[in-house]
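Task: sequence design from structure.
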């Protein structure tokens, strides 16, 4: 039986002072509904996973790294068209994208195999009970 390897998919995120980030915050109308707000600027790292963030309003708060993501500013539409990735006959040219897709496919196949094994075990138990009756 294959087990899921958490270390293979976990990624370490590190931000440095001055990085622009978006912060995942609850909305005003619903505390269970979150949206990305930003940009904000990293001003200090507190330990391994906490960062002090300064918003445009001047307010500073500390957030866990899981509540932060790098802020990507939009470019002019002319520049975006010139920098778009090229696709050749349906295949991405980026090897990292292909490796990620292969890992996802491998994980999905592993899950299908596990479910199939569980169904077969359940069926064999059901058939055994049926034969005994």
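Answer:
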């Amino acid at each position: 039986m294959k087990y899921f390897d958490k270390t293979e998919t976990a990624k370490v995120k590190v931000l440095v002072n001055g990085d622009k980030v978006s912060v995942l915050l609850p909305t005003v109308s619903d505390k269970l509904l979150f949206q990305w707000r930003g940009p904000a600027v990293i001003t200090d790292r507190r330990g391994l996973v906490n960062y002090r963030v300064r918003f445009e309003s001047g307010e500073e708060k500390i957030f866990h790294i899981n509540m932060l993501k790098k802020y990507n500013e939009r470019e002019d539409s002319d520049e975006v068209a010139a920098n778009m990735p090229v696709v050749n006959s349906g295949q991405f040219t980026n090897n990292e994208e292909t490796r990620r897709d292969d890992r996802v496919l491998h994980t999905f196949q592993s899950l299908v195999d596990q479910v199939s094994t569980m169904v077969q075990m359940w069926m064999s138990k059901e058939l055994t009970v049926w034969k005994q009756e």
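Residues 1 and 114 are 8 Å apart (CA to CA).
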